[in-house]
User: Fold these one by one.
Assistant:
Number 1:
Amino acid sequence: MKLYYAPDTCSLSPHIVLRELALEFELVKVDNRSKLTSDGRDFRLINPKGYVAALELDDGQILTEGPAIVQYLADLRPESGLAPPAGSWARVRLQEWLNFITSEIHAGSALLFNQALPDAVLSLFREKLFRRFDFLQDTLAEKAFLMGPSFSIADAYLFTVLGWCKFFSIELDRWPALLAYRANINARPAVQAALRAEATQ
Ligand SMILES: N[C@@H](CCC(=O)N[C@@H](CS)C(=O)NCC(=O)O)C(=O)O
């Protein structure tokens, strides 16, 4: 398998999951501005959507959309417990989290990168994001991980998008459970390995 990724983006989530599962994979860096891969190919010919993450399977198929990729990966190693079995109620709960992260936190944060927006609009988006953080604070004050006592693919994704707070000068001190959660996940060996690999490639 090959993971097409760009540092500091949502592709960190499937990258972490690949390492948590100890799957064999190759990393291919994408320059999100030029849309060129590190081996000189036009990334838009690989993923016509033009964005990371994209996973190339050994048979050449390309899978896109972070929440779909991480579920596909977790299902390759069901014994890992990174996702409950497909069809179970717990899996629906996991999908509820993945959808919340993608639509409320990922998409909500991505808007803040848009410096063309007037300050008043950016501030409205920030406040909306903060209300989502309030909800996460209440949730994570009760449990160590989104799905309960153990790490899941939803945590890889939430950790990834929380990492963008540094770009918007958002300090998580206001949400202590979220701050502790991020530090806890950051300490995982697979997470450290993924961050190191992305910083040095
Ligand atoms: N819906 C996609 C969104 C992916 C996405 O937002 N990718 C960003 C990085 S986090 C990107 O590569 N943007 C570059 C672009 O759109 O040109 C997913 O969930 O995987």
Number 2:
Amino acid sequence: MTDDGDSGHGNASAVSTRSGSSFLGPDRLNQREDSTLGPDRLNQRDGTPPRVPSAREERAGVSRDVKGRIEFEHVDFSYSPDTELIRDLNLVAEPGQTVAIVGPTGAGKTTLVNLIMRFYDINSGKITIDGVDIATLPRGEVRGNIGMVLQDTWLFGGTIWDNIAYGRLGATDEEILEAAKATFVDRFVHSLPDGYETVIDEEGSNVSAGEKQLITIARAFLADPALLILDEATSSVDTRTELLLQHAMAALRTGRTSFVIAHRLSTIRDADLILVMQDGAIVEKGNHEELIAAEGAYFDLYQSQFAAAIE
Ligand SMILES: Nc1ncnc2c1ncn2[C@@H]1O[C@H](COP(=O)(O)OP(=O)(O)O)[C@@H](O)[C@H]1O
Ligand SMILES: [Mg+2]
């Protein structure tokens, strides 16, 4: 494990504001129709023509023009003026790439993803999405393109179906089922007496920890955000569920730029880019093979923390 379990934002897991289903409510839907706001604006500044929306996007009534290139340029950030945390951080995530972030507790992993969400403003430097400085965009617009799946599984006391449907207001039954199937929720649901109508009780004791994670993944899949932030859950699940979780996460990451605070070996191995953080800085960057060959910080971390997990 590389993290102690803090997610920084409590219970706001698997929330995508793109769908207008949470922070901003129905207003977001109106906002999107205004051509001066929303993804179109990002696109205009980038000077690229809008791409043709997929059938799924057409059904959803939105067109996803955000390509999802994220860049940090000389970013400095501190929570308090007297303690500097992130210094001169530079990184590029190309559209569709998976970026895994590893490092010890307190290294700044959660902080880095919080900066992408604009939960905090940086002291100096620039963070861009498709070349647009996020500091110039309304916070709602930035968050509207980002889906989050955080460690604390957040499900409400309703049915499994409603918990998934929450991912995108106005999704059709067909789309909800599609999301459930893609993320393996559909499989375990059929073993429950009430199926999708199973009410997740207060303690969630009728559904296992791994199954709850699958439901939050299904919810994010339905929301279909251009960018994804995953703080992988650390709760222990059985081997079979673990495998399903890996496949569900992979399905969710497909076709979108994803930042993963990684606890799972599989994610780290497959990531296009691994960032090793220590004390607010990226001390190493590369893919798994490159970083193993470098025999540096990642290699040490891998030897000490991950090697045992392979056996
Ligand atoms: N809201 C906050 N206010 C002040 N300090 C914070 C806050 N959140 C995190 N920190 C501090 O910033 C550093 C990095 O934390 P964090 O980004 O949560 O690290 P990680 O996710 O790698 O464990 C830690 O020293 C932590 O105590
Ligand atoms: Mg953290």
